[in-house]
Amino acid sequence: MSLVAKAMMSLTGPLTVNEFEKQCRHPRLAQRRLLRRILEKNQETAFGRKYDFRRLKTFRAFQKSVPISTYEDLKPYIEAQLRGKRGQLTAEKPVLFAMTSGTTGESKYIPVTPESRKAKADLMKVWLSAFYKDHPGILSEKILSVVSPEMETRAPDGTPCGAESGHAYRNIPGLLQSLYACPYEVFEIEDYETRYYTILRIAVAQSLSLIVTVNPSTVLVLCERLAQHTDSLIHDVRVGGLSSRFNVPRRLYKKIEEYVPPNPGRAEELRRAAARHRRRLLPKAIWPKLAAIACWQGGTVGTYLEKLRPYFPKDIPIRDLGYLASEHRGSVPLFDDVDTGVLAIATNVYEFFPADKDRKPRGTELLTVNEVELGKRYFVYVTTLGGLYRYDMNDIVEVAAYFQKTPMIRFVQKGRGIVSFTGEKLSETQVLAAAEEAFRPVKSQSDFIAAVGEMNGHTPHYVFLAEFDKAPGPARLQQIVRALDESLCAHNTEYASKRKSARLDPPVLRIVRRGEFDKYRKRKVGAGRADGQFKILRLTDDAEFAKEFDVVRDVGLKPGRRPRKRAHRRPSR
């Protein structure tokens, strides 16, 4: 372990974790204190004066006075902040507006203040300290972290607008920057393929002990491009520089030039490693000291984890990064290979509403942290140090366990990831479970993209978009469609009822041309979607989404076909 890493952990690790555990013993008290701090500090803001923060002395008074909000509700205040008008949502001036496009629509601008930035950084220290305690090797070599650019544009008042991950990376203290493999400027390369090649060119020349990126799909892209560009990467390491096939802007190349010197000895190591794996570079072969991977594991991205396994040692630990969004950092995972984390009770104020309620809540109905129940699922509403108040995240989380007396939660899905034409209320988790079961017997490589609910004449049905390296024969494809139908029926009794009553037609398997999903991802990233935040709904009723892909053919069952009977199972979690 480097002296820098030792200094960081000895100075911040134990004290940070101990304080966090102490707070977790009294979650209700931590939430009350935090709410009081937020209200007192921001009582003279435009929002604070409107809702009379000065007189709100209890949590109940806060719930009665301040309404549940969405981005559209707060947008006038945020737009005023963007223009430089002070004291709108927070007394502190934002240092960044984190841009997030969500799943559709124009960008949202989430204010990040010095206080909210520090609070998130403190949570990251807790996460890293606990991680290091379990795996000291993670800081023995370099860290490869992939982030999105800090600045995509500037607000009218000059404040940066972009990704908070890039903002945090760029503001890493100088002493700690030496722990990271890549300079920040790499992430400012706009071209998708050039950016990933440059990241790999720099990384393959070094020894890594930890890979950190929010979305596991990013890790998968790195693995695939590593194998794809094996010969070019080895050549570039041998002679120095970057392949002329990838055009890095001169301004940025000057910043990264020192990271790509010639290294014939390392090139020979890479050549031998590739020779042992059918002339392909694999992470497990070129980074033998890699101690762990850190990325999301739950929700709709969890399906990527199995795709990562062939590239890494079988026993490599994976630590979740937690419930994390532009709006807030919601949890701190403390254990390997699980998608749960301890609720961030001292950083954000949380309220909840049962996910099984088929209506929107009234403001006074939201539950506090001490009122949620083990095993139950809830919609999340958050009040932050950055100026969001009772903000509807449209996220569903599940209370999976407790740490001390604080709930440990897992992200389940976006609330909007539910489609219902005739009352079936099909969810993303049910679609993912059905796809996993239906595609499991397929011998050739297959990738499920998404299910699209659409009208088939006057009757709705679900279209499953998928890619194949080599599409199976007609009989096998028909078998996949039947399996999709039967699995959806098993996971969702309402779906089964609607299928049986012919209110839903059977699903359709839509085979898209190989590489279409990668092209889709490139288009979205190229259009400004932050790569680290790139997420795709695995279930949507937006018929336009299916038009994004070049279709080979549809495979379906006759509309009048009834689903086979199958034993009902509880929805997969």
Provide an overview of this structure.
- The structure is a single chain.
- The chain is α/β, with parallel strands linked by helices.
- It has 3 domains: 3-115 and 322-414, no CATH class; 136-153 and 164-293, no CATH class; 418-556, GMP Synthetase, Chain A, domain 3.
- It is built from 20 helices and 21 strands.
- The strands form 5 sheets. A 6-stranded antiparallel sheet has the order 9-10-14-13-12-11. A 5-stranded mixed sheet has the order 20-17-18-19-21. A 4-stranded mixed sheet has the order 2-1-5-4.
- A hairpin with a 7-residue loop joins strand 9 and strand 10 (340-343).
- The protein is globular and about 70 Å long.
- The protein starts with a helix and ends in a 17-residue tail after the last strand.
Strand line-up of the largest beta sheet: 9-10-14-13-12-11
Report the structural category.
alpha/beta
**Which value, in Å, is the CA radius of gyration?**
25 Å
Domains (count) = 3
Overall body shape = globular
Measured by DSSP, the beta-strand proportion falls in: 15-25%
Layout of secondary structure:
Layout: H1 3-24, H2 27-41, H3 46-50, H4 59-65, H5 71-82, E1 96-100, E2 108-112, H6 114-134, E3 142-145, E4 153-154, E5 160-162, H7 164-170, H8 174-177, H9 192-204, E6 208-212, H10 216-228, H11 230-239, H12 250-256, H13 264-275, H14 283-286, E7 292-294, H15 304-308, E8 318-319, E9 331-332, E10 340-343, E11 348-354, E12 377-384, E13 391-403, E14 406-414, E15 418-419, E16 426-427, H16 428-439, E17 446-456, E18 459-468, H17 474-491, H18 493-500, E19 508-512, H19 516-526, E20 539-540, H20 543-546, E21 551-556
Parallel strand pairs: 1-5, 3-6, 6-7, 7-8, 17-20, 18-19
Antiparallel strand pairs: 1-2, 4-5, 9-10, 10-14, 11-12, 12-13, 13-14, 15-16, 17-18, 19-21
Helix pairs in contact: 1-6, 11-13, 16-17, 17-18
